[in-house]
Amino acid sequence: MTDKASLRKICISSRAGISPEERAAAQGKICEFLLSMPEYKNAALLLSYIPTGDEIDVTPVIADALKSGKTVAAPVTLGKSMEFRVFRSFDELEKGSFGIMEPKSEKAARNFENCFCITPALCADYEFYRLGYGGGYYDRFFEEQSGIFSAALCFEKLRFEDIPRESGDVPVDCVVTEKEIYRRYC
What we know:
By secondary structure, the chain is an alpha/beta fold. Helices cover about 25% and strands about 25% of the residues. The two termini are about 30 Å apart.
């Protein structure tokens, strides 16, 4: 089995090699799937990363959530932890840690009942574990909070039978690719 650091490099390279046409079609389908999910439709709070670089662009889902009156929050890193801060428009974002867009607001989301979390992933496996960028932020967040429905996003070709795991890794509730919504609990 490949170690996490090596697998990250492989996934980043593979994701970068996806053609713009293939990427646009896949991202469109992933967003369609997300918008169709009852867990998203019924959520009062959307937690979502703000895409950067080659990450899957979920801004159409964020825009839908803002338009439909959901509370929307994006992560802000604070040392070894992160909190999700509320924003009401894309104009309320600014470049923050790691060069990633973050809410300017100091208002943190606190009530995670009826919450849907779009979770970034370089890849995911068939056991619903994801590989991120190595900071462990989302795993620690999911350990601290309960009741959050988590959906990891990755391209179908970056779903693997098994990825390296550590004791602090937390599985997500579903993995969404351009091919399908894979649910941990059917």
